[in-house]
Write a structure and sequence with these properties.
Blueprint: E1 2-3, E2 12-18, H1 21-29, E3 37-43, E4 49-54, E5 57-62, H2 63-66, E6 69-73
Antiparallel strand pairs: 1-6, 2-3, 2-6, 3-4, 4-5
Length: about 70
């Protein structure tokens, strides 16, 4: 298994779990839930932020937050 930071541009995965309990509720509220399909859309120049497509929405996350989201191949 890998985390969201391991995805390449336009690569899709399925969310397996969120490891950091402090972030879990907030991420779930914005759609990052188990078995949701997620796709990496773009990275910023410094690679501190990444944009993901999830449920017909594009959401930006810090790489420090997205490393806590464990995914599996779609």
């Amino acid at each position: 298994m890998k985390n969201l930071n391991d995805l390449k541009i336009n690569e899709e995965a399925i969310i397996d779990r969120i490891e950091n309990t402090a972030l879990k509720r907030r991420l779930m509220d914005i759609g990052f839930v188990k078995n949701a399909k997620v796709k990496l859309i773009l990275k910023n120049f410094g690679d501190s932020m990444r944009a993901y497509q999830i449920k017909n929405t594009i959401m930006a996350l810090r790489t420090s937050d997205s490393k806590n989201i464990i995914v599996k191949k779609s």
